[in-house]
Amino acid sequence: MAEKEDPIKIHREGTTLSDLGKHKEAIEKFLQASQLYKKSGNFFDASYTLFKAAECSFMLEDYELAAERFLEAAEIAFDKGFDRFAVSALEYARDCYKKLDKTEKVEELERKIKEVKEKLAESF
Hints:
Layout: H1 7-19, H2 23-39, H3 43-59, H4 63-79, H5 83-99, H6 103-122
């Protein structure tokens, strides 16, 4: 019988690798954990581990991939109502696009971030 993959254990391994500066290896663990969390219906952690994989890509200066993953993390978070977390992911994606000199994308994300923050402020 195959051992069931534990997303929490894999998530921790990713965190340890990331803390050690082994970002490439950490990305693999975070992406694996994200898939497992998604399968089990834990969408917050699925989004969070994807966010962590994006952070590692950012550290490796792979801004294109980092932006893609931050946006995917934001999408999962928005779908499940984790709007504040999603805004953080959008802000990081915006920073990636700044590094890539993609002014149009930066402006597009700034508008979306402002819009979501205003909506969140109204709900209080």
